[in-house]
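User: Hey, my collaborator sent me this sequence without any context and asked if I could get a structure. I don't really work with proteins. Can you help?
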Amino acid sequence: MAKADRIAEHKNIADNRQARHNYHILEHWEAGIALTGGEVKSLRAGQAQLKDSYGLVRDGQALLLNCHISPYKNAGYATHEPDRTRRLLLHKAEIERIEGKTREKGLTLIPMRLYWKTGKVKCELALAKGKQLYDKRETERQREADRSARQALKERSRR
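Assistant: No problem. I've predicted the 3D structure and written it out in structure-token form, which is a compact way to encode the shape of the chain:
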């Protein structure tokens, strides 16, 4: 099964759209998230934001920080803190590998997207290295060149 087919199977909840613009993506992992009931219902309503969130390994546990999940409006007294630290569910070997990689200078763990997979919330994590301003400009130039080339081919095929 192709990667595009696998991605199409899962329903996205939230994307970190700035991640590919601000970072060079090196590796990917899929992790579960320990959530409360109100958080799950909020995610079903699409009330999540990954913009400033990041991952961290502390005391042998992988954590997701600054992920904003809005409180569920019908939760009553059992509300949750919107930006609380959430535990990521990974195998011990994966956590150790991530911890070793994030100790390298300039590498960080960022969430790329939240999605549903067989009724469970999953988080796609990526090991990333920050881009410099000139890297961002080069990426934008390359994207523009690809866009103009596709447009030229499209015009040519119309004739």
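In plain terms: The helical segments are 3-9, 19-22, 37-44, 92-102, 133-158. You can pass these tokens on to your collaborator as they are.
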